[in-house]
Every structure is written in C-alpha cells, then in structure tokens.
Design brief:
- The protein is 38% helix and 15% strand.
- It has 15 helices and 14 strands.
- It has 466 residues and is an alpha/beta fold.
- The two termini are 25 Å apart.
- The strands form three sheets. The chain has a seven-stranded mixed sheet, sandwiched between helices. A four-stranded mixed sheet has the order 1-2-3-13. A three-stranded antiparallel sheet has the order 11-12-14.
- It binds pyridoxal-5'-phosphate.
- The site of pyridoxal-5'-phosphate has 14 residues, from helix 5.
C-alpha cells in the first residue's frame, strides 16, 4: 500500500510539488507527507501502517544517540518534575552542569559557553561574538565574514549571508550582508603529481588571496565546516589544509569559527571533528547531536583569547534568547553526553566506520554513484546521471524525490536536502546523499542498511536510466 502510495505521490509531484492536504493543510511545507511516523526506537522508525525504516541519515545528521532512549526519558521527566522553565537570569543547575560538561570534552582553550536553541542561532551568535570581539579589542573596522561559496550555515539572514549560493540570495539580497566567499577544498581538479598535503596547503591559500584583494583589516572571521559543503559535501581535507587556514587567520587577526553543528558529538569517530587535525578554532558552533535531537539545543564554545575582552568591566555579549539554557533542553544535553559516555558511542562510531566504508566499492560500482566519502559514521554518496560528465539529473526528472520514494519502499529513511532542483549550471556536479545512522548502529544493521541501499540504487537506476 505504502509502496504504491509513495511511488504514486512521487509521480504526481514531478515536476512540481504537492501542497499539503487534509490535516496537514495548515503546515507550511511544500513536501508531501508520504509517511506518518508512529514510533521511533534505536535506529528504527515505524510508520502508522507498522512499516519499519532504518533512519539512514539520523534525521538531518542529528540523531547521534538512538531514538527513544529510556535514560533520556528519565532525565527529561526528572527535570520536568522539578521545573520545566525558568527565565535565563535565574541560576539553573542543569545549565551550569551542561556548560561544565561541554567545556570538559572540548579542546583546552574553549572554556566559555553560550547556549541557544538551534544551529542557525549558534552560527548567528558566533558571527556576533566575532564582530564584538574586534570592537572590544580596538579593531572596529573588522566586520566581514569569509565563508565557502557552497557553504550552508543556517536559515537566518546572517547565516544565509554566509552562503554564497545565488539561489538563496536572490530573493533576500537587499537585506543580506555583503560578505566574502571563497572556493573550498576540492579534489576534482587536483593535479595527479601533487600530494594531498601540498594540495591542502594550496587550497587553503585561497583564503590568503581573498584577504589580499579585500583588505583583511575589514575581516572579522573565517567560518567553515570541518568537511566540504555543497557539491563536495563530506569531503575531508588533509590536516595541512586546516593548519594553513589557522596560520593565515592568525597572521591577519581573523577569528576561525569551526561550524561543528553536523560533525560534533561523535559523528566522525572523534568527539569533535577538528580533533582529527589537531587544530583549535577560536569559536565552535554546536547543535543537532548535542541533544541527540531530543529537544532544540545548541551552543557556541568560545576560546579564552576571545572571551578575555568580554570579561572586562562594562563589556558583555549581547545575547538573550528566551530559551537559551532552557532547563529541559539542558537536561537533554546532559543525558546525551552521559549516554555517549556510558555506551562509548564515539569509540563505537570509530569502530563501526570501517564496516560502513567496506560497502563503498559496492556503491561505487553503480553507474549513478560518482564518489563515496566521509569519516566515522558519516558517509556522503555523490549521485549523478553520468559519472563521465559528473552531473546530476535535470530538475524535471524529479530524481531526488524518486530516490527517496524507492528508499522508503525498501525501508530506508533518507534526509532530503532537495539540493538537486536548485542546482545551477555553474555548480552542476552530483547530489550528495548522506548516510549518517544513529551512532548506536550495529554491524548487522549496517549490512542490512547497505543491502537496502544497493537495491534502492538499482531500482532507481532502472527507472531513470532504463
Ligand atoms: C553546518 C551547519 N550549520 C548550521 C546549520 C543550521 O542548523 P539548524 O538547522 O539547527 O538551524 C546546519 C543545518 O543543517 C548545518 O548543517
């Protein structure tokens, strides 16, 4: 039933999208609701027809601990029995404990924490912190940000300004900030006779070029995710890249913001991804996995250097969300950290990673898979129409929606970025599909997930390529 329904809906929505109907009609979404969730447990989702799906992308790369953990339920219920909410100016024990726990797992220089409710708020706040830091330290001319053309850092005006994508910008441009963008690390044009390390340094020097031509005296911070974004989503640069970025930032008094919203809390096999490179950011933004997606929670971790001027008399950061440090969200954060620790989920993610990537060759044997990359339990599969042209399907083929429909039929729930339809000629490349299951996934579940993915790819290809 559901299979037919998913495929039928998919047929209907090509090339357009259905508006929600029935009980969903007041929801602002242009995606059809094919599947209504009834229950989520561990790595599995169950719909109202009793069909089971593996949560193959962990929601939007956010479900790091498994769904429905009874320890989470106990922590939330315990907090609720005391109090669910208190104004942020009150001392709230869970908030103090969470900040302490975050500092304990972060790199040694990150010792101050601001809390908020989502990744976009965290990045927005990090941008404000960077700007205010320079104002407080006598460099008020520094206000611009540098980010990747293809980056994604959120949905507020400031975070959308960080994305260079004209598809985001065109509607909002008059009210967005005119910041700087640069090409990210990519191996598509890497010369065969250059080592990855040397190439990493060369790519990082793109930042130097942008600064040279744009007056570094006006630049406050550089922000990036530890792995690639957009067409190179999930590509992991060598450590030489990040060391060179760090050097350039220091040389020009530019703060380095590592956006670990996706990569934090064990996703890459380390607590935070920058640990792989042994490079410390000045600010780190965290969200998604911080609460295992159980409640909205996010944080900005700030280094001693950046925090110092904010400690002086009369200087304080202008930050004040109603829900910052929400006791229930903090309880969810604390329970998540406890579960990650007790179940050794970061180590487990590192141990399961080779099993996940064992399947990479099998995926790459498909004519629509141009690349498989990533780290830990983060795998990005680049889907294309043709591996020679390395381009994705035209919009009118509705290929991504079809992929999702076949995946659902085969018991897999994927995060739909719907990047595909927004691609312009300049950045055609492939469509990244994220395979990021909850970190508690076991070997046999990984094998099962990849068998189902293999079948999904074959059926999708049969439909699209004939
Ligand atoms: C790297 C990165 N930063 C920030 C965000 C924004 O987070 P949120 O959706 O919680 O606002 C996202 C969301 O996907 C993200 O991937």
């Amino acid at each position: 039933m559901l299979i037919q329904q998913s495929i039928r809906n998919t047929d209907q929505i090509i090339p357009g999208m259905l508006a929600p109907e029935g009980p969903w009609r007041h929801c602002f979404s242009h995606y059809p609701f094919d599947v209504e969730l009834a229950l989520a447990e561990g790595v599995y989702l169950y719909d109202t027809n009793g069909k089971r799906y593996i949560d193959a992308s962990g929601g939007p790369m956010a479900v790091n601990i498994g769904h429905g953990d009874p320890r989470m339920k106990a922590a939330l219920s315990e907090q609720f029995d005391r109090y669910a909410y208190v104004h942020p100016t009150f001392a709230n024990r869970r908030r103090a404990e969470l900040c302490e726990a975050l500092v304990a797992i972060a790199s040694p220089s990150l010792n101050a924490v601001y809390l908020c409710s989502g990744g976009s708020e965290a990045v927005d706040s990090a941008v404000k912190l960077a700007r205010q830091y320079h104002v407080l330290t006598g460099a008020p001319g520094k206000y611009r940000m540098v980010s990747y053309f293809e980056s994604y850092h959120g949905m507020t005006l400031a975070t959308m300004s960080l994305a260079g994508n004209p598809a985001y910008r065109k509607t909002f441009d008059p009210v967005m900030s005119d910041w700087l963008h640069m090409a990210q690390y990519s191996e598509v044009n890497m010369p065969p006779d250059v080592s990855r390390d040397a190439w990493g340094v060369q790519c990082a020097q793109e930042l130097e070029r942008v600064l040279y031509f744009n007056n570094p005296g006006t630049v406050a911070a550089f922000i990036a995710t530890p792995h690639g974004a957009g067409a190179d989503y999930g590509l992991v640069p060598p450590a030489s890249y990040w060391r060179e970025i760090r050097r350039i930032c220091d040389e020009h008094n530019i703060l380095f913001i590592a956006d670990e919203v996706v990569t934090g809390f064990g996703r890459t096999g380390r607590m935070f991804a920058m640990e792989h490179f042994d490079v410390e950011p000045d600010l780190m933004t965290l969200a998604k996995g911080i609460s295992g997606a159980n409640l909205p929670l996010a944080a900005i971790l700030v280094s001693d250097k950046v925090n110092e001027p904010f400690r002086k008399d009369g200087a304080y950061f202008l930050h004040g969300f109603t829900f910052q440090g929400h006791p229930m969200a903090c309880a969810a954060g604390l329970a998540t950290l406890q579960i990650l620790h007790d179940d050794k989920l970061v180590e487990h993610a590192a141990a399961m990673s080779p099993r996940l990537f064992e399947h990479a060759e099998r995926l790459k044997a498909h004519p629509t898979v141009a690349d498989v990359r990533g780290w830990g339990l983060f795998m990005a599969m680049e889907l294309v129409e043709s591996t020679e042209r390395r381009e994705y399907f035209d919009v009118d083929k509705g290929a991504e929606r079809l992929f999702q429909a076949y995946a659902l039929k085969n018991g897999l729930a994927f995060y739909g970025t719907l990047y595909g339809p927004r691609r312009s000629a300049a950045v055609r490349r492939g469509l990244p599909m994220m395979i990021c299951p909850p970190l508690c996934i076991q070997r046999d579940q990984i094998d099962d997930m990849m068998d189902r993915l293999d079948t999904t790819l074959s059926e999708w290809e049969q439909r699209l390529l004939g």
